[in-house]
């Protein structure tokens, strides 16, 4: 019986199996226990020897049970630990990386060009006073841009700026000439949207003021920007145009040798020499703030352009609305290279 019990104990693969073997041999009605119960029926002279024999069997079985139990418990613990262990050699979970929005990429390129030319870079408020957006920029009350159809007016009489040009006024009120500055930021127009029009878009505005600044400086600056964007073959073209805050005013376009042979003039923006009425409006605002009138008699130029147009062409985006629809299939194509 001892031999069978020990064979079964050693064959037990789990603690449950082992409990079964234990019950069968040394439990309350186990085989060894029963055997002990028969002692009383033996003649007294045999009882002692038989008793000792059965106790020896029981002790051997108990010892084997304890040992096997130790082995099985350790194995169970090992299995639990290894299932929880961290394998530091496994590859990590990939983190999705972001990317710069295409408009910000174009801004970075443009602003890089102007920073190299020594321009300051500023931003201004998107909620603007009528005076800065129109009046001080010599936009007459009857100008169509003032119409409710074109401008988002707020209930308090202010508006969402329709261009970045009001920052010309704000900057000159705060700074004396000579100055060179570019303004980046969002602008808003109340109009129907289509593939080339959005009610919110961006502008880069340039302003240069100093003694003797001329139209030649303006043309040279725009040409320098075109070469910075498109390389040495880039050409610029100016066509007369009307903006109330410049005189003379012009629209400018850029042409360059496109490797795909699809070169054509790209209309980029407006520009011109600062209108004397603008300098006067700035001096009036300065005077009202107790500052010196320093702009009358100065000359300068300004220009404004839209990075969306550059980005659409550069990245082959056919519809301006894609930039702001937040569709990950569009913006996901600009993932990864930050910078
Ligand atoms: N502010 C003009 C626009 O939004 C662009 C412009 C800026 C024109 C500076 C001339 C000078 O259309």
UniProtKB/TrEMBL annotation:
<keyword id="KW-0436">Ligase</keyword>
<keyword id="KW-0963">Cytoplasm</keyword>
<feature type="binding site">
    <location>
        <position position="247"/>
    </location>
    <ligand>
        <name>Mg(2+)</name>
    </ligand>
</feature>
<keyword id="KW-0479">Metal-binding</keyword>
<keyword id="KW-0067">ATP-binding</keyword>
<feature type="domain" description="Aminoacyl-transfer RNA synthetases class-II family profile">
    <location>
        <begin position="115"/>
        <end position="328"/>
    </location>
</feature>
<protein>
    <recommendedName>
        <fullName>Phenylalanine--tRNA ligase alpha subunit</fullName>
        <ecNumber>6.1.1.20</ecNumber>
    </recommendedName>
</protein>
<dbReference type="GO" id="GO:0000049">
    <property type="term" value="F:tRNA binding"/>
</dbReference>
<dbReference type="GO" id="GO:0005737">
    <property type="term" value="C:cytoplasm"/>
</dbReference>
<keyword id="KW-0648">Protein biosynthesis</keyword>
<dbReference type="InterPro" id="IPR045864">
    <property type="entry name" value="aa-tRNA-synth_II/BPL/LPL"/>
</dbReference>
<dbReference type="InterPro" id="IPR010978">
    <property type="entry name" value="tRNA-bd_arm"/>
</dbReference>
<keyword id="KW-0547">Nucleotide-binding</keyword>
<dbReference type="GO" id="GO:0000287">
    <property type="term" value="F:magnesium ion binding"/>
</dbReference>
<dbReference type="InterPro" id="IPR002319">
    <property type="entry name" value="Phenylalanyl-tRNA_Synthase"/>
</dbReference>
<dbReference type="InterPro" id="IPR022911">
    <property type="entry name" value="Phe_tRNA_ligase_alpha1_bac"/>
</dbReference>
<comment type="similarity">
    <text>Belongs to the class-II aminoacyl-tRNA synthetase family. Phe-tRNA synthetase alpha subunit type 1 subfamily.</text>
</comment>
<dbReference type="Pfam" id="PF01409">
    <property type="entry name" value="tRNA-synt_2d"/>
</dbReference>
<dbReference type="GO" id="GO:0005524">
    <property type="term" value="F:ATP binding"/>
</dbReference>
<dbReference type="InterPro" id="IPR006195">
    <property type="entry name" value="aa-tRNA-synth_II"/>
</dbReference>
<keyword id="KW-0030">Aminoacyl-tRNA synthetase</keyword>
<dbReference type="Pfam" id="PF02912">
    <property type="entry name" value="Phe_tRNA-synt_N"/>
</dbReference>
<dbReference type="GO" id="GO:0006432">
    <property type="term" value="P:phenylalanyl-tRNA aminoacylation"/>
</dbReference>
<dbReference type="GO" id="GO:0004826">
    <property type="term" value="F:phenylalanine-tRNA ligase activity"/>
</dbReference>
<keyword id="KW-0460">Magnesium</keyword>
<dbReference type="InterPro" id="IPR004188">
    <property type="entry name" value="Phe-tRNA_ligase_II_N"/>
</dbReference>
<comment type="subunit">
    <text>Tetramer of two alpha and two beta subunits.</text>
</comment>
């Amino acid at each position: 019986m001892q031999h069978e019990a020990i064979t079964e104990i050693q064959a037990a693969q789990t603690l449950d199996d082992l409990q079964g073997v234990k019950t069968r041999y040394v439990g309350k009605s186990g085989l060894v226990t029963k055997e002990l119960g028969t002692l009383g029926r033996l003649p007294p002279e045999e009882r002692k020897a038989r008793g000792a024999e059965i106790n020896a069997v029981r002790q051997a079985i108990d010892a084997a049970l304890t040992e096997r139990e130790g082995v099985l418990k350790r194995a169970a613990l090992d299995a639990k630990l290894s299932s929880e262990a961290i394998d530091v050699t496994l590859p990590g979970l990939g983190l999705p990386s972001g990317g710069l929005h295409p408009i910000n990429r174009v801004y970075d390129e443009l602003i890089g060009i102007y920073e190299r030319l020594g321009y300051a870079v500023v931003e201004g408020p998107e909620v603007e006073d009528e005076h800065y957006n129109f009046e001080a920029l010599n936009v007459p009350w009857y100008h169509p841009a003032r119409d409710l159809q074109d401008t988002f007016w707020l209930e308090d009489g202010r508006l969402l700026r329709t261009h970045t040009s009001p920052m010309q006024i704000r900057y000159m009120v705060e700074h004396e000439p000579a100055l060179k500055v570019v303004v980046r930021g969002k602008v808003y127009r109340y109009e129907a949207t289509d593939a080339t029009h959005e009610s919110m878009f961006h502008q880069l505005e340039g302003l240069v003021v100093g003694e003797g600044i001329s139209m030649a400086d303006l043309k040279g600056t725009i040409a320098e920007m075109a070469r910075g964007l498109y390389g040495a073959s880039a050409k610029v073209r100016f066509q007369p145009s009307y903006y109330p805050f410049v005189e003379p005013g012009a629209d400018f376009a850029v042409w360059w040798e496109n490797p795909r042979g699809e070169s054509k003039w790209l209309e980029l923006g407006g520009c011109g020499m600062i209108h004397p009425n603008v300098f006067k409006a700035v001096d009036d605002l300065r005077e009202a703030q107790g500052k010196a009138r320093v702009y009358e008699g100065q000359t300068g130029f300004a220009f404004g352009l839209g990075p969306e147009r550059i980005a659409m062409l550069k990245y082959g985006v056919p519809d301006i609305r894609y930039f702001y629809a937040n569709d990950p299939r569009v913006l996901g194509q600009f993932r990864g290279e930050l910078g």
